[in-house]
Amino acid sequence: MLVFLVFASKLGLYTAALTGVGLLLHGAAAITTSRRWFLILGLGLVVVIAARLTLLNAQLGGGLGAAFSPETFSWIWPANRLQAFAFVGGAGLMALSAIARTGFLKLPAAIVIASGFALAGHTQGLDMPGLAPWLAGLHALIVGFWIIAPFTLWPRTDLPEATIVARMERFSQIAVWSVPLIFVTGVWLALRLTGSPTALLTSPYGQLLLAKLVLASLALAIGAWNKFRVTSMLAQNPARGLISLKRALGADIVLFASLLTLIAAATTFTGPGAA
Known about the structure:
Blueprint: H1 2-28, H2 35-61, H3 70-99, H4 106-119, H5 132-147, H6 149-152, H7 161-194, H8 197-202, H9 204-236, H10 238-268
Helix pairs in contact: 1-2, 1-4, 1-5, 1-10, 2-3, 3-4, 4-5, 5-7, 7-9, 9-10
């Protein structure tokens, strides 16, 4: 039971952190202007990191009764403090950018949160980490930009069609060069963590990473459909184009939710070197 709560906390942490990164980047790129969600996700990230540390403490102590034990926390905190500081600090900058109604804090806040993925995780356990942790942070930064798109690009009824198309075009301009980096960094990190192409194909951890790559490829195909087909449909037949866009973005939501679940599973139930 407790291990599944730890898994749920990891899934919640990744979801809050990556969607927060994405929302900040979309805000910095003028794709969205939602101040309310900056505050909600900033607070949510702080709550989730606190819940995760508590559950990790309980897991180390052998049960929920040890959730607030200072003895076990002295073991949990050193390994997680840098990531916690990055997430909480980034969340604070996110909230401040919304309260102060300023845009220049959004990109720094996104970078600070994404750095949390470099400061903890499996790349830190490598014998010679090198650039791997920071490539993991870059990977998280771009993944965040991608997975928030179904929400910021959703064709709300209060948005003019011209605004919807403009947001899609702005997203595409950035995605066309940034999204390929997801695959480059993702494959490199997968090989680095598993140690060899054979381990990537045969180990449980490697197979979860490959499943993640397959889902990401499907999402990329949907993105290409949106760029080369749906955009033109919106111009020629807006009603039909909006229906196609909603279906494509809905499929993206399912794929991205599955991706986050796979990532959380790969880092909770298995790991590099698992047989």
